[in-house]
Amino acid sequence: MLYKSDYLEQNAILNTAAKMCAAARTAPKAHGKDILHTLVLTGEEKELLAQKMEEVGIREMGDKMNTWYGRDANNVRKAQALVLIGVEQKYRNVPYCGYCGFDNCSSCKKAGGNCAFAYVDLGIAVSSAVTIAANDMVDSRVMYSVGKAAAEMNYVQNVLWLGIPISVSGKNIFFDRGIFHD
After folding, report:
1. Of 65, 82, 101, 165, which residue is 20 to 30 A from 17 by alpha carbon distance?
2. Domain-by-domain residue ranges, the chain?
3. Residue 145 region by backbone torsions, left for phi larger than 0, else alpha for psi between -120 and 50, else beta
4. Element (H, E) at 60
5. Tell me: the pLDDT tens digits for 77-101?
6. How far, in Å, CA of 98 to CA of 79, rounded?
């Protein structure tokens, strides 16, 4: 049987995306609570998220949208897949913590704050995932703009997301991105 590069590269992308989700899942979690979510988008679902990124960018940045959200949306479109990693916005009720800047979880919740451990868990999970991409020689980039748009897509309610578009191409699509934001 003859396998062409497009077929093999798409299989490699999906295999890497699956391993990235596994790495995120098995990453250490604060206070032993697993509130992690992972998703992989390709095709039409990925395009819908890119469109949402542009919509959020126009709302947040107006004419300067292309310097960040538009640029990132174009990267998402060029990538073969997008890995989303998120954590639920739940309070861990860790006694004597205060990492969030409040005295306790109830004060944080009342003020509309987020548990600091959610960010710690998200960072560790994303770091674990991009390590897999690097080890698989698959190009990736962590994007907050993807996560902000994903939060509005209602994949899962009350989740803080980060997005990682992944790509196999002759040149890293995330390298010469051209436009920079302030």
Report:
1. 65
2. 5-167
3. alpha
4. helix 43-61
5. 999 999 999 999 888 888 888 999 9
6. 39
